[in-house]
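hey m, so remember when u said the tokens were messed up on ur end? i reran from scratch. heres the input so u can diff it against urs
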Amino acid sequence: MSERVTATEAARKFSDILNRVRYGHETFVVLRAGEEIAKISPAHPGQSVTLRELIQRLSQRGSPDSRFAADLEEIQASQPPIGDVPWPS
């Protein structure tokens, strides 16, 4: 369902509206003089998943093979040392 906002309200709260579209996946219909003139909605609405969906998808993939941990240790051991960082901690 879309939330309806006036053009004036959309202008005043544009940053908030964009955040709600991006992170809350909300859609807004902008009205001018009571007429619908625009819709602000997520550009890629189908890409988000809930945490429950993510857990379900990951559980369906099964466990990594027996060499997975050894491969990670080998990769980590082969990385060069970072050395001194050029900025204070």
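this time it looks ok to me. The beta strands are 3-6, 28-32, 35-40. if urs says something different then somethings off w ur setup not the seq
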